[in-house]
Amino acid sequence: MKNIFKYVGIIALMCFSFYYTKEAAEFMKKDDAVMKQINEYASSHNTKCVEGYITEQGVVLGINGLIVDEDLSYSIMKGSGFNESLIKYKDSPCVVNLENNKKDYIIGGNPSKNSVSLIINITNGKSIEDIISVVEYKNVKVSLLSDYIFLNNNKELVNKLINNNYDFLYKGDNDEDLNKYLNSLRSIDKNIKPFCVNLDNNNILEDCYKKDLNTIKTNKIYKNKYLSNIRKNLSKGDIIILEESSSLKSEIGVVINYIKSRGLKIITVSELLK
């Protein structure tokens, strides 16, 4: 029995010593000159989340904040002094975000980002390379909406565009086609997580949710008169779908010029919804 008490006492002493050592280390870290400088830097450089909102049609996502990871920054600078270039950051996520809202349609990006996304809905693929050439010349990025057939028939082009940071998005209305689409994309990049797009009020939301994917739904879908329609309806945070055609090939340049003239950036869907 005495031995039991002895061992219990030793264990208790070890636990107390560990706790005391940890608390002492934390106290010393807080009082360290480097940590104080990191705290001061963080107080003027942390950015808070710009929260999104939920409507009957779907959600407009928030923009995650970015805050200084004080502990990681300190562990890197400890012993060498404060160095702004070694500051490390971590996300400060909003409540309305991609992870929390996979069961909801995404209807737009946060207006405070002052940006829009153009999605080219690929029909037959005959004009897409010419459209991309204009997009590249204008120094912007668009997102590309396709089915798995286009991916399989244009592997070299798709691989090139993915490597150049273009988004590919899924259009379809059944789980079998979605699986084929994901298999095609992931043969190029195994970690890719495309967005789904609801066209014609199909029921793809549930299928995409089961695959851990988000689904976009927008009422700004234009099959012709692209510039005229955008002039009437352009807003910050828009997700705009333009159907591929020979007309779009000749008009995409003026569409891009007009959007830029309104002071808006044109970025991919993944960037808009980040």
Structure notes:
- With 274 residues, the chain is an alpha/beta fold.
- It folds into two domains: 2-92, no CATH class; 105-272, TIM Barrel, CATH 3.20.20.370.
- 45% of the residues lie in helices and 16% in strands.
- The chain contains eleven helices and 13 strands.
- Strands 1, 2, 5, 6, 7, 8, 9, 10, 11, 12 and 13 form an eleven-stranded mixed beta sheet that branches.
- The longest helix has 30 residues, at 2-31.
- The radius of gyration is 25 Å and the shape is globular.
- The termini are far apart.
- Mean pLDDT is 87; it is low at 15-27.
Please write the CATH class name of the largest domain.
Answer: Alpha Beta
CATH superfamily of the largest domain: Glycoside hydrolase/deacetylase
**What is the total tally of β strands?**
13
User: Oligomerization state of this entry?
Assistant: single chain
**What is the correct CATH architecture of the largest domain?**
Alpha-Beta Barrel
The overall pLDDT, averaged over residues, is 87
Q: Strand pairing plus helix content: what structural class?
A: alpha/beta
> Can you count the helices?
11
Instruction: Please tell me how large the radius of gyration is.
Output: 25 Å
How many distinct folded domains?
2
Question: Shape from CA axes?
Answer: globular
Q: Mind describing the biggest β-sheet? A: 11 strands, mixed
Could you say what the CATH topology of the largest domain is called? Answer: TIM Barrel
Distance, first to last CA: 62 Å
Secondary-structure element order, as H and E?
HHEEEHEEEHEHHEHEHEEHEHEH
Beta-strand content estimate: 15-25%
Q: Unreliable stretches, pLDDT < 50, 5 or more residues?
A: 15-27
| Helix fraction by DSSP (H/I, runs of at least 4) | 40-55%
